[in-house]
Amino acid sequence: MNVKRAAKYGFCAGVRIADRKVKKFAREGHRGAILGQVVHNERVVEEMRQLGVDTVDALAETREETIVFSAHGVPPSFHARAREQGLRVLDTTCPFVYDIHDEAAAALAAGAHLVFIGDPRHREVIGYTHDLDPADYHVLLRVEEAREIDWSRYEKVRIFYQTTLNAGEFEELVRYIESQVPATRRADTICYATKENQDAALALGRDPEVDLILVIGGRASANTRHLWEICRQHKPSHLIQGVADLDPSWFAGVTTVGLTAGASTPDYVVDEVERALRALAPEAAGESGERMAR
Ligand code: SF4
Predict the structure, then answer these.
(1) pLDDT tens, position by position, for the chain (294 residues)?
(2) Does ligand 1 lie within 6 Å of residue 97's CB atom?
(3) Is residue 25 a contact partner of residue 5, using CB atoms and an 8 Å limit?
């Protein structure tokens, strides 16, 4: 079995730094709690738990002295709330996410109505919107939602994308808003790391040598699912969390497997999958047997 990795995959710089900060904190003997998953990857969450940094869903649930804010960022008010609770903060918010907070605040101060293209339940988007007056913004994903809004109320609009989205998929929505409010400006908020992983996944999909692609990442990870969507348009593709999800029946007649991974997938998980694929005996690839043991 040949394995070809995408030219760019896995942890982005923001998540890599967040991961290092939390591990250093744990190595120094501290314990803490992470507000929400540090990244959307179950293996990383479990690894952190074993290091003494468990995940909580709300500040009020924290029993530790330190709360960790993840790379996705939090609403600015959460810093004040943590202080009121007497908590120390280990802030691993990605600087790029902070830039978007700052740009949105500046646009609002300049009188723009804010539009966030993204998932309203995603923590990054909640970070941008939680503290705002609902009259000052919309979170949109579909052009149908935009058509229900009376845009004549807004003189100017500033559009922000959730960093991990594929901007091309929202062109119709953005053009509709621009047609309604001529003074609409788009902020360039798609993260380069996401774009690079997406471009490399597309190249893998178009690579004539690659028969099948495995996309490795957490099922709740938005950017991993986007990579999967790109790959499956070109090649048979499976989204897996790790070796345990591999099914030998997928590899019948397959000579070369392409590998890519979401921005929340640690390198060691990609290494494990590659080792398992290389060890896959040719006859096993023809069987539709049980899933490979981890
Ligand atoms: S995907 Fe980009 S914006 Fe998000 S944490 Fe990584 S580097 Fe930062």
Answers:
(1) 899 999 999 988 898 899 899 999 999 999 999 998 777 777 888 889 999 999 999 999 999 999 999 999 999 999 999 999 999 999 999 999 999 999 999 999 999 999 999 999 999 999 999 999 999 999 999 999 999 999 999 999 999 999 988 788 899 999 999 999 999 999 989 888 888 999 999 999 999 999 999 999 988 787 899 899 999 999 999 999 999 999 999 999 999 999 999 988 999 999 999 999 998 855 444 443 344 433
(2) yes
(3) no
Handedness of CA 77, 82, 88, 93 (dihedral sign): negative
Residue 175: give the domain boundaries: 96-186
Query: Atom 8 (ligand 1): residue with closest C-alpha?
Result: 14
Please compute Rg for the chain using Cα positions. 21
Please state the pTM of the whole predicted model.
Answer: 0.81
* Ligand 1 atom closest to Cα of residue 194: 1
Residue 124: active-site member:
yes
Contact 94, 73 (CB under 8 A): yes
- Same domain for 201 and 219: yes
CATH number of the domain that residue 255 is part of: 3.40.1010.20
CA of 104 to the centre of ligand 1 (A): 17
